[in-house]
Amino acid sequence: MTTNSKSKESKKGYVKDFITGRLFRESKEEPVRQAIEHLLVEDYGYSKDQMDVEFKIQRGSKRGNEEADIVIFNDSKKKDQMNVFLIVETEHPGVEFDNQLISYVTATTAPFCIWSNGEKTLFFYRDPKNPTVFEEIPEIPRNGETIKDIGRHLKKQLKPAHNLKMVFENIHNQLYGSANIRRPEELGREMTKILFCKIFDEKNPDPKCNFRATVDEIIDDKGKSKIVQRLKKIFEDVKEEYADVFNKSEKINLDDDSISFIVSKLQHIGLMKSDADSVGKSFEVFVPEELKGEKGEFFTPRPVVRMAVSMIAPDGIKKDKILDPACGSGGFLTVALEKVRNDYDEKYKNSHLTKQQVEKIKSDYVAKHFCGVDIEEDLIRISKAYMAIVGDGRSGIFKADSLTEPEFWSDSMKEKLKFGSFDVILTNPPFGKKIPISKPSVLQQFDLGKEAKKTDNKEIIFSSKLRKSQVPDILFIERCIKFLKPPTKDKKGGRMGIVLPKGTLNNPDLLEDVACRYWIFNNAKILGVIDLPSDSFQPYTGTTTSLLLLERTDEEPKENYDIFMAISNEIGHDKRGNPKYKQDKHGAYIVDKNNQMILDVDADEISNDFQKYLKGNLRNSNRSFVVKYNDIKKADRLDASHFNPEAQKAKKRIKNSLPKGWSLRTVESVTENVFYPGRFKRPYVDEKYGVPFISGANITRLKKVGVKYISKKMKNLENYIVKKDWIFVTRSGTSGIIVYADESFDGLAVSEHVIRIIPDSKKIDGGYLYAVLSSPIFEPIFESAITGSVIDEITPNFIKGLEIPVPDDFKEQKKIGNQIKDAAKNIALAKKSFITVEKTIDKILK
């Protein structure tokens, strides 16, 4: 790591050090160092004044050639290596521990040292009487404590962890490499048992912690046996207290080493004092990967959860009844629970009631009014543990399938989950075509489980015939609406926020999606739509999603009402799940008042925009804007991106800036055809038996790459052959790229992923049509036309309906068109030159 300067200003490519304020170059290692610095200051209480970074250490004759990443001195008055209390060496993830740290420490007076690569953090102690002997210990003492204090904290001394997720990841990585149980789902179950023990111990009125591991105990088998015995005794009490979670016969099956390790890493942390978000993210570390992927259980990012809760605004004082019918690990429920508990704190902050009496009121409300359902037992356990930490309510959490027939629900679930009884639903149901619902008895319950037909006047009629299958997210929409309270004369219906694949809200060609939107229009009022960033559920799925806010109406609202819409662009992580931080216009990281980098998230701004909208003072922007219901109904689209103000401005600009002697015409009115030939099986053959076939990606290249040949005998081959002077638009993947067909395309077969536009030469010059469509003013319009959840798509119908400015004077069209055609000739010549050069090189090399 190289120091740039002592300046406190941001600079592109540099990170501002938490301890010193100095700037260090970005590297894979730097985030690890910054995380440990925060840990030492915020969790262990050491002051920045007694710390330094990149401290030069003299070891033998090597004066000043080696640097310790972080050092803590006994006090701030004397910063030399003979007054060092602790040394830290950090590495980037993937690097294994070596003895470099030990060599640093032996040149100093430090009794403690830490090594971390972010994935694993090791703590060491050396006895001053044996300075060359290092023992691994569970943690270091807090500022002002000694090694004997480790594992002997009182409950009032427990503190929330600054980076709880890092602690859980360290535990996970250690167990996955050495525990007697390594299957992810079984390891997750074992961890949940131990977490319940931790929660139970924190709630126990005894001021001393029984969930503990001292240094003396952790170093030998006899001591570890004591730790395990204490924990298993706690678990027996846990099974009685949480009989709805654990069977009496259940045991903790992890080995003594693993149990002792977990206890030692969690003992000083107050889970009950920790932030709900950090607890939730940490719990999910132990959720098996297959639940996050194959079964569609994609956990909702916390910024989205908080945004949804803020907008739907569950009200504890009004005793709103709240449900998540696909609750997973409980993210929506716990953030909603946190919100309603705050409602009560605010109401009773100046009352005569004691703190215990207010807590009783809150607990009674939560126990009666919070419900969650999920089909996965492991997730239900995590959800119950999570709920127990932030305020209980676990009695309303059920293991069941929300979509199955209610007759198969347990009696207690039937009692709590009645149709038409909930004020608020917040949910992210499983989605994906890999997990369709095909059981007839389940489909029979739903309008959206039946076949749909579109009438001539574009209405949808649901028949009595069942579909072969339906994706679960569409069925969840109908079930959620039915769970909400219906409207009455003096009260609105229940409201909900639901995360859905974007394609459900905008696909024009899939009848199941069109029918779903039609059903929504006729049973709910749309309160808002927020398109979420494409990386929201990465690294588990690239499915793009939207947050849909609805209110139950049981009929189509008659008024042309306003709908809030927003486009969220930043979720705080990239497609690999790595954190993304805010940067200024120069590319330097922005830090908060505590010198911490700020996650790049815009959900809070959108939540604030929504509050402004409710008060009637929102100013439309590219981020948040208002759309009329009739416009949504006419477009038959519910995604916010389609109504992007940039696209609307572009359309108005085209309409309002027409010169005299020009008119607006649809693309359909000036073309012979706009189409794509449909999917087909490609019979690839040898060159002499086939026609050159190029992909959508190849149409933009001067030099074609990977050209294949399809059989001349292929059925309907003529549908795929293209001609010179046609216009191509890529329709899927990277949608909206526009290409003019020069002579090199004449007679080629082109992918079905490319829309063909055939200009009518009697009505428009083809070169002019290309020039207009490829104009920058049409870019936001094309972007607004994109549909789909997994692959972006543009349809021929969209292009047919585009209104373009056309000069009535054909000569004016020709003048522009000829420039395009001249350019196309030059491109064709360039392609021939490429081929000529290639042939020349081939001859030379032969």
Question: Would you give an account of this structure?
Answer:
The chain is α+β, with helices and mostly antiparallel strands and 846 residues long. Among the domains are: 3-150, tt1808, chain A (Alpha-Beta Complex), CATH 3.90.1570; 164-286; 297-418, Rossmann fold (3-Layer(aba) Sandwich); 648-835, Alpha-Beta Complex (Adenine-n6-DNA-methyltransferase TaqI, Chain A, domain 2), CATH 3.90.220. It is 34% helix and 18% strand. It has 25 helices and 29 strands. The strands form seven sheets. It has a nine-stranded mixed beta sheet with strand order 12-11-10-13-16-18-17-19-20, with helices on both faces. β25 (727-730) and β26 form a beta hairpin. α3 runs parallel beside α8 (276-283), α10 (302-312) runs parallel beside α19 and α11 runs antiparallel to α12. The longest helix is centred in the last third of the chain and has 36 residues, at 810-845. The radius of gyration is 32 Å and the shape is globular. The model is unreliable at 1-8 (pLDDT under 50).
